[in-house]
Please model this.
Amino acid sequence: MKYRRSIGEVVFDLFNMFFMICLILVTLYPFYYILIASFSDPTLLIKARGFFTVPLGFSTSAYDAVISNPLIRIGYLNTLFYVVGGTTLGLLLTSFGAYALSRRKYLGRDFFMIVIVITMFFSGGLIPTFLLVKSLGLLDTRFAVFIPTAINTWNLIIMRTAFRQVPFSLEESAKMDGANDFTILFRIFLPVSLPVVAVMILFYSVHYWNEFFYAMIYLRTRTLYPLQLFLREIIIASSAQSMMTGVVSDRAPIGQTIKYATIILTTLPILVVYPFLQRYFVRGVMIGAIKE
Model:
């Protein structure tokens, strides 16, 4: 028997569809605006007002200026180092901590878990952390960007919960065959928890790609700056120029398009990588959120 929808259901579906389309347009237009503004003519863009959907005089001068800027290239290389190094270290240490805290025979497991969770609500503060980094000799080094934040507590909880779903019989069988804890972790737990591992890689990669605060606090040498710090400088300089009435230099128009081009170049790698990890995202978070 074929179900016949009522007029009210049809009206609700049409209204819901219209609302979702409007929501998508409102959400995506800022990104689309940045994209078309980066390809617009700088002089026309700074004079334009209101809503527009196509580039105002196609120009790649902003991308040429950004790509030819040696600081942008240095920032890209530094950011790649921070992403690769921070993600690798974070994933490794998070796996070690999650494995230890998920073992049934680990003495004091619940106590240490409570102590770790407390750090989500209270921290030592910025000044004590800065003094600690300085005393360890990490100040103004690349390692200061990702070593103090190597383990994220929320990521540790997700991976710990996922490891607790692994059957205990697998661990027992491996130990009977002479496997140690490192072998069990790398040969059993991580391979069967690939969705969670992919989520951890995504979380840590996005975090270190967008990181600028700790780099701004701990780094003094400009050649160590990540890309986000150079983007911050460009946005601040562009905003300051736009606020100066009557004394805007000839470089102000190109500064606007350079700002948009830099934003596109900084977000493009994440937009390219995310679709390949998206299928693991919800699945991995759900696995890590379920408790027996």
User: Anything to note?
Assistant: The two ends are 41 Å apart (CA to CA). Residues 243-250 have pLDDT under 50 and may be disordered.
